[in-house]
């Protein structure tokens, strides 16, 4: 038991040598690099998000107006050219 | 968070964190890596620290979490390297010699080692260790008991 206590006392008193100042500077550099990395990663994502927010309603507006126009044109063409109805009219007369 | 706050925390608690980090892992590079991981975690979390817990307890918690995560990463990394070494893709370096005081600790598993360090070296109460490690108090006690037995045996063996 005495030797265990002695061993624990040894652990309390002596830790392997270390240069705290050097480690502090390395930690500061890593922390700065991490924040810079976060900004670097976040900036393009933010741009993509803004573009998406702006582009989505615009795309929706243009695509829906073209669809309506297209549908209207094809309806008029079909209706006017008559297809079968016109043929029936010619044959009947 | 002002740099001053971080600097003063570092000044006040660096030795405590180093004592745990340097006895939890044994390779010089690993010790410094773990020490830096702890302080980077403190740096990141400091703005969210609400002061509900004592700063000392909070630093211990960050240290324990970083150490446990570090041990997990090291285990995965070592397994990966062993596989690559077996396939002769990488050269497996022999492990660095462990200093005399760390030899008995190196015989414990990471959980036993952390519990023993907190209980006997840092003199934290068992309830706090349970809270810091997220283990039930019964598990803390059994790990501490087993850890002490192994260390005593090793200390006796090495004279």
UniProtKB/TrEMBL annotation, chain A:
The chain crosses the membrane at residues 36-59. It comes from the Bacteria. Keywords: Membrane, Transmembrane, Transmembrane helix. This is Uncharacterized protein. It comes from candidate division WOR-1 bacterium RIFOXYC12_FULL_54_18. The lineage of its organism: Bacteria, Bacillati, Saganbacteria.
From TrEMBL, chain B:
Residues 105-149 form the RNA polymerase sigma factor 70 region 4 type domain. The keyword DNA repair does not apply. GO terms for biological process: DNA-templated transcription initiation. InterPro entries: RNA_pol_sigma-70-like (IPR039425), RNA_pol_sigma-70_dom (IPR014284), RNA_pol_sigma70_r2 (IPR007627), RNA_pol_sigma70_r4_t2 (IPR013249), RNA_pol_sigma_r2 (IPR013325), RNA_pol_sigma_r3/r4-like (IPR013324), WH-like_DNA-bd_sf (IPR036388). Keywords: Sigma factor, Transcription, Transcription regulation. GO terms for molecular function: DNA binding; sigma factor activity. It holds the Pfam family Sigma70_r4_2. Residues 9-75 form the RNA polymerase sigma-70 region domain. CDD domains: Sigma70_r4. It comes from the Bacteria. Belongs to the sigma-70 factor family. ECF subfamily. NCBIfam families: sigma70-ECF. This is RNA polymerase subunit sigma-70. It comes from candidate division WOR-1 bacterium RIFOXYC12_FULL_54_18.
């Amino acid at each position: 038991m005495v030797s265990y206590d002695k061993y624990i006392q040894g652990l309390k008193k002596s830790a392997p040598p270390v240069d705290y100042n050097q480690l502090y500077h390395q930690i500061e550099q890593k922390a700065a690099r991490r924040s810079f990395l976060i900004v670097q990663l976040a900036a393009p994502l933010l741009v993509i998000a803004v573009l998406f927010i702006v582009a989505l309603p615009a795309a929706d507006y243009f695509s829906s107006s073209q669809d309506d126009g297209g549908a209207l044109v094809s309806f008029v063409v079909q209706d006017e050219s008559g297809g079968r109805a016109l043929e029936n009219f010619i044959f009947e007369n | 968070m002002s740099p001053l706050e971080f600097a003063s925390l570092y000044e006040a608690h660096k030795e405590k964190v180093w004592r745990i980090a340097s006895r939890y892992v044994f390779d010089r590079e690993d010790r410094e890596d773990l020490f830096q991981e702890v302080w980077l975690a403190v740096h990141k979390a400091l703005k969210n620290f609400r002061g509900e817990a004592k700063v000392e307890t909070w630093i211990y918690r960050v240290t324990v979490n970083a150490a446990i995560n570090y041990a997990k990463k090291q285990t995965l990394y070592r397994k990966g390297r062993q596989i690559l070494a077996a396939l002769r893709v990488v050269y497996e370096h022999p492990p660095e010699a462990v200093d005399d005081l760390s030899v008995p600790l190196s015989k414990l598993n990471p959980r036993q080692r952390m519990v023993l360090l907190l209980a006997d070296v840092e003199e934290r109460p068992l309830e706090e260790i349970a809270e810091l490690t997220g283990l039930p108090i019964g598990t803390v006690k059994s790990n501490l008991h087993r850890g002490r037995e192994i260390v005593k045996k090793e200390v006796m063996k090495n004279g």
